[in-house]
Amino acid sequence: MPIQHGINMIELLAIHTFMNLKVLEAIGPTRSISLDNYPKTTEARDSLLGRMARPLAATGFIDQVEVQS
Which domain of life, per UniProt (predicted)? Predict the structure, then answer.
């Protein structure tokens, strides 16, 4: 179970960071936003947001979908 505790800590850290950067508010009622649009709405680096979003997508907190062109 130590691995699960580590994953929970990473997930909580990412959620806390997203809350502080107001990323969850940027998603808004549409419940969808492109990673390219995060920095415009939150003034955060896209590389940071991408790294923080990965564990949240892996644990199911957020969904990662393919962009259809």
Answer: Eukaryota
